[in-house]
Amino acid sequence: MLRSLVWRPLALRHCKGATKTAQKAFTTSTLRPQQLPGEDEQTTHFGFSTVPAAQKEAKVGAVFSSVASSYDTMNDLMSLGIHRLWKDYFVRSLNPGSRNSEKGWNILDVAGGTGDIAFGMLDHATNVNLDLKTKVTIADINPDMLAEGRRRALETPYGNSKRLSFMQANAESMPSIESNSLDLYTVAFGIRNFTNKDAAIREAFRVLKPGGVFACLEFSHVDSALFNAVYKRWSFGAIPLIGQLVTGDRDSYQYLVESIERFPTQEEFKAMIEDAGFVTPGAGYENLTGGIASIHRGIKPI
């Protein structure tokens, strides 16, 4: 189910020939528009609804403010705990930290919410690569999710450490982060909620160093018709009901399953990453659990 990766995220730093070839490839790709049929540039989708683009941020904010305190419990129930395996695999595949660097990595975890990915990155850097310098900034647009992350951080070794910091920010524009300053940019189960995904990916390209890596773990599209039918029945039938029973909030979880359905296919999202300027190594993505989730990667050319 989870195939091991023989891939080092910064490996292309020393492969200039491959990078130049890939650069030519991505410059010829076309930008996939974010608007759907029947929508103009002032509207976007919110689940299955079409809403004014200016309203989506507030609507998504209300959803995540509602689910912040129960976010991890609901993820366990909705995925039968598998989301923890996906996140662990995501972190291990990126292998954050360095045994040979005195500075460590500078990592930004966007839509970092309750801190799962950030804590995992720091654990891996510390315990696997013996790197005590790598640091992670958790960025999230939602103050309630950040508050939950800060609370949970106090239960880890990093709660009062300079290696972990928090910032409230919109991923589509982060002027407080310098260009060419990050080694790794991660976003897990968050980018499908962004109003303008293309802008967010371009901003990721700006803040990453040449050779730096954009890595995204997101719900995706199942690659088997039979499995897809079962998965859709679970998603649209069970998940909103679980939300109602556990949290008293059916609507937020109805939106979450609809947002998964509206997310681009693996190939479409790969094209969006390339259009922003990234080189996508190998196939550009890896499906997990039959495509329920996928890991996408892009490397900023040197």
Automatic annotation (TrEMBL):
Catalytic activity from the UniProt record: a 2-methoxy-6-(all-trans-polyprenyl)benzene-1,4-diol + S-adenosyl-L-methionine = a 5-methoxy-2-methyl-3-(all-trans-polyprenyl)benzene-1,4-diol + S-adenosyl-L-homocysteine + H(+)
Pfam families reported in the protein's UniProt record: Ubie_methyltran
InterPro entries linked to this entry: SAM-dependent_MTases_sf (IPR029063), UbiE/COQ5_MeTrFase (IPR004033), UbiE/COQ5_MeTrFase_CS (IPR023576)
Cellular localisation: Mitochondrion inner membrane
Pathway(s) where this gene product acts: Cofactor biosynthesis; ubiquinone biosynthesis
Chief localization: mitochondrion
Entry superkingdom: Eukaryota
Record's bilayer topology term: Peripheral membrane protein
Entry GO MF terms: 2-methoxy-6-polyprenyl-1,4-benzoquinol methyltransferase activity
Keywords of this entry: Membrane, Methyltransferase, Mitochondrion, Mitochondrion inner membrane, S-adenosyl-L-methionine, Transferase, Ubiquinone, Ubiquinone biosynthesis
Listed GO CC annotations: extrinsic component of mitochondrial inner membrane
Enzyme category, top tier: transferase
Keyword Nucleotidyltransferase listed: no
Gene3D superfamilies in the record: Vaccinia Virus protein VP39
Family, similarity comment: Belongs to the class I-like SAM-binding methyltransferase superfamily. MenG/UbiE family.
Subunit structure: Component of a multi-subunit COQ enzyme complex, composed of at least COQ3, COQ4, COQ5, COQ6, COQ7 and COQ9.
Role according to the record: Methyltransferase required for the conversion of 2-polyprenyl-6-methoxy-1,4-benzoquinol (DDMQH2) to 2-polyprenyl-3-methyl-6-methoxy-1,4-benzoquinol (DMQH2).
Protein name as catalogued: 2-methoxy-6-polyprenyl-1,4-benzoquinol methylase, mitochondrial
Organism: Capronia coronata CBS 617.96
